[in-house]
Fold each of these.
Amino acid sequence: MGIRASHNDQQGVTLTETLVVVAITGTLLGFAIPSYQGMIERNRLRQAAESFKSDLQYARSAALKRSQNIVVSRQAGNDGAWCYGLAVRTASKTSCNCNETDPAANNFCDIKRIMGNNFTQTNMEAATINNNTFNSRRGTTNAGGATFSTSHYAVRVVFSDVGRVRLCSPDPLPADKEALPNIQTAC
């Protein structure tokens, strides 16, 4: 004869056990959410800077491939209210307006337009020169750069006279910002 279970055995969980699980879960989420928000902020900033970097590289290669000078124009702004665009440079078009939507307008960015609202909560800081032209013979341009930031982080995209483009941490780094992780080189 086997041992039979009593009908009085309880199955399920008690209220106390449920409250312990809820308390532990709440504590873990309290630590995880700020870390997750920081990760989202860093990724959004990296995407904005990498987008600008790759479009600068594209402008250089397009100038060489098309045998036409390519101008890159940008407008600074905060919280995604910035933009940049690429256009074929002509005698009458020395820059383009990335906010222009009419393709027939002389200042329309006829190759590409990128709006900062695709990268919410990111800023593009104003630069001394906001228009750079990549030369069609050698892919060269005037050295410059653009600094992108969020509320906690900053990264700079720089380009040299010979057209080399790279990411670096702004130098000096603003007092309220940290360098974007994994970007060791200071500008």
Amino acid sequence: MDNDLPEYPFAQPAALEPPPQWSELRAGCPVASVRLASGDQALLLTRYADVRQVLSDPRFTRQLDADGAARVTAQESGGVFGAEQSSMTPTGEAHQRWRRLVGRWFTVKRMTAMEPRIAAMAERLISDFGPGPVDLVKAFAFPLPVWVICDMLGVPDSDRDRFAYWSDTMLSLTRYGQAEIDASQLEFGEYLWAHIEATRANPGDDLISDLVTNDELSTLELLGTAQGLLIAGHETTANMIGKMVAMLLADRSRWERVLGDRALVRTAVEEALRFDANPGFGMPRYITEDIEVSGVKLAAGTTVINSMAAANRDESAFEHADDMDLARRPNPHLAFGAGPHSCIGQALARTEMQVALTALLDRLPGLRLDGPAEELPRREGLIVGGLERVMVRW
């Protein structure tokens, strides 16, 4: 192991500021060797074109259980990038079949139909705010997407605190020990297994019922689907809602601009996704064939980390990339990845973020951060980036 390699993920100056290494590497070392939390070595890509190239190549997947693949986390299980999760994740043609089955529940048309119900829930959550200051993450950004994904899957959102804990253990880089992760994942698996079996006996009008009734996925694939959607369906979006509001309030002229022109809600959401300086780990890929990226040969057997967030600050792809332009068009950011493994729930995430922002603008136009943006506490030790709290007043 080369102890002189930089440790990845990089430290940030503050929760809303990007690591200086992003721009340094894009300029001088776009294919950089880094050391992961496991101690293993990987290559980090930071340029837009390179990240898009690798993510769009169907030959390279998230199957990181291959011999010689770098371990992402400090724990042997590897969490969402580990061998157990990989065994429940379809690949190749099976993955495309899975996307067709599950993707019909995440179409733009379906999300548009869901929007009034999501808006009603957002209004209800805001109505339950106390006199302030309020933690926007706990009171709003977390419960909204949890309610939505639980409704879609047919599981009770009253169990959301358990889902959050189970998800965090699956997303741990360094936060949890292996024994705690193992116990948590056993509970998570047993919970979902019982739900799937109950759904077989009494199906309803939800995604899991649809998959069970059609009987096109194995039980193991069903379990992986339910687990993956519960994690991705609330963890990333909940984090992103909190970060989006914090970005807009950190320079309150941004909030005022969207407040005065609601046509900017859609583009402001996209720009928040692009501008996010606290996205977490990125997307790893295991290279199965030799390829060339930025003039560098990547040998088969190499693990590559694609930093979508660093790529989203690439001046060659985005004019004034380090400025938050709330009217930016076009905005081909990579926050949801690219290619055959791009985020299947991106239409849902966009809808939730747009609805959340609109509801806050309508109900709390005087919203402000309760303290300096520089002091916002980051979520540490997890694969996904986020803020532990966003205290606000109005």
